[in-house]
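Supplementary Note 2. Why include the ligand at all?

Several targets in our set were suspected to adopt different conformations when bound, so apo predictions alone were not considered sufficient. For every target with a known small-molecule partner we therefore ran a joint prediction. The input for S-adenosylmethionine is given below.
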Amino acid sequence: MSPALGVYIHWPFCARICPYCDFNVFRHRGHEDQGQALTSAILTDLKNQAAGLGRRTLVSVFFGGGTPSLMAPAWVAEILETCDRLWPGGAAPEVTLEANPTDAEAAKFQAFRTAGVNRLSLGLQALNDPDLKILGRDHTAREGRAAADLAAKIFPRLSIDLIYARPNQTVDMWTHELDAALQIGAQHISPYQLTIEPGTAFERAVGRGQLTPPRPDLAADLYDATQDHLSRAGFDAYEVSNHALSPADQSRHNLVYWRGEDYLGIGPGAHGRITRNGTRHAEVAAMTPSAYIERVTRIGHGVAESECLSPVAAAEERLLSGLRITEGVPYADLTALDLHPDHGEVRALTADGLLVHDRNRLMATSAGRLVLNWLTRRLALA
Ligand SMILES: C[S@@+](CC[C@H](N)C(=O)[O-])C[C@H]1O[C@@H](n2cnc3c(N)ncnc32)[C@H](O)[C@@H]1O
Ligand code: SF4
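The joint prediction is reproduced in token form.
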């Protein structure tokens, strides 16, 4: 089989910009006219980038954002038909679309399914109105539940995103909310710990003393409660913030990232990793919708930055992403770092309970996954 490929499509528009979010996003209002032009640019970018890749097996297409559920289903269908033509044969890829749970977007779910989406990732974030208000969301808990129930009926696979470690949240409140989330029937749950990102409205509110995130010890208790609660409900924490009911329910798209496979980044600000002639390239598309459309129109693709990663830089990246998942990373992918089972640092970190000892693969324990950046730095420097 030819090497696996993922395609990430970034749809940067949102109805409202949430105060905690630092993704590459733009207000939808005032940009309504750009949707068709952006879709045309995405199609051109996709075809031209595919032409230079050689044979690949398409395993996943991911519409991320921003808010791709604001797209017209016809645009999603056109992009998926193009993917089918560019990478024919093989098993049907996983096709995920991120959706916000407003009534207006839920009304389009059936059309997205007909367009070829077979996995919906629903951004519920919270299941109570006061917290949705704090998070600046434009939907109610009732709307969220209704969208989730509808999505569970329409899509073969459903994933839900939640944000925890909110201001004033207790372990008790959170575990009750997790119980409610478990009732939805999603096969995949991504609970993300609230991060106060630089440059966001939340960062400014924390600076003014108007918002107080939980102290680190409470945040750690909330993390432990999450792992505990979901694992008792039969969900495996196959990655730090990703829990799946069975191996088949894991996100194939995220596994592309964590296994160091290649993926195209299409759309404003999208990141890609592509191996050409044995060298891995880190690529970033032009950031704003206008700059992206202009670039694709002028030179045929949207890539604004392309860096050849040295073997050491590529192996460091492979190490960091591979240790996030329980399956770990094969030593064969880490030869540039000269890491092997008998390496002194590997043995020491295994004795400390942070790594798992195996002759073929390097894996982090759950304690190790909590200090991944530190762990990776220590292994890479060794
Ligand atoms: C790129 S967002 C797109 C999802 C969709 N637009 C939505 O808001 O539902 C993907 C996920 O990242 C998570 N996220 C974004 N910013 C975050 C932050 N500062 N802290 C924790 N999670 C965050 C949210 O759970 C969100 O669903
Ligand atoms: S969290 Fe989602 S809806 Fe909110 S600004 Fe970020 S991408 Fe847009």
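Residues 14, 17-18, 21, 23, 25, 65-67, 100, 123 surround iron/sulfur cluster (ligand 2) (CB under 6 Å). The chain is about 40% helix and 25% strand. Comparable summaries for the other entries are listed in the accompanying table.
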